[in-house]
Amino acid sequence: MDWNVIFDGVGSQIIGVLVSALVTSAISIPISYNAGKRSVTQKQKAGNNAVQTQVGVSNER
User: Fold this and answer.
1) Which residue ranges does UniProt annotate as crossing the membrane (predicted)?
2) 56 conformational bin, left if phi > 0, alpha if psi -120 to 50, beta if neither
């Protein structure tokens, strides 16, 4: 049995997987970081001991 046939292209496939992982992480990490730091600014209009409702963007999914 010729082992070169089995392992032919394995090195280039490993390099391709590593490059793909680096490109994916370089794109997705900044996007997810910016999406996670969104915040809602709120102002209180009622006095003390008042019942209020919250309206805004919820970051929980």
Assistant:
1) 12-35
2) left
CA distance 28 to 8: 32
- Secondary structure of the chain in the HEC alphabet? CCHHHHHCCHHHHHHHHHHHHHHHHHHHHHHHHHHHCCCCCCCCCCCCCCCCCCCCCCCCC
> Contacts by 21-28 with C-beta closer than 8 Å and gap 24+?
none
Question: Is the confidence at residue 3, as pLDDT, over 60?
Answer: yes
Whether the pTM exceeds 0.70: the reply is no
